[in-house]
Amino acid sequence: MSQATTFENSVGHPLRIFLVEDSLDVRELMIENLAMIPGVVVTGVSESEGDALNQLNASPCDVLIVDIQLKKGNGINLLRQISEKTKISNTLKIICSNNATEVFRRVGRQYGVNHFFDKTSEFPQLFELVKNLSCARLECNGPG
Known about the structure:
Elements: H1 2-7, E1 15-20, H2 24-35, E2 40-46, H3 49-58, E3 63-66, H4 75-83, H5 86-89, E4 92-97, H6 102-110, E5 113-118, H7 123-138
Parallel strand pairs: 1-2, 1-3, 3-4, 4-5
Helix pairs in contact: 3-4
Domain Response regulatory: 16-134
InterPro entries: Bact_response_regulator, CheY-like_superfamily, Sig_transdc_resp-reg_receiver
Keywords: Phosphoprotein
């Protein structure tokens, strides 16, 4: 898997996640679930494109989870801006959105999105991916 090479040089360090989600309920649910995964730290949250970009420029993360529709701006434009910044470009990018159309998936890939999850039905897969990434970083032995 390509993520393994991305995280090789950070073995033993927490997996830093930044979450861009405008729904308070969804954001709290995601943070709660991410906090239950060993070796994962949510280092920042934002509900708007501009604020997310400012925070990411100040403090990069390992994994960026982005919703498409935001209170101000949108996740696709955020991803486009990030793809132009080398400081953030190596971040593993994930879209988690209700807008799970093929068009958004294709545009996401264009801007370096590694995974796309449908918010209405694929939360378990998202958290399983993060768990696997964290486990690889912590060098877990056996199935997690």
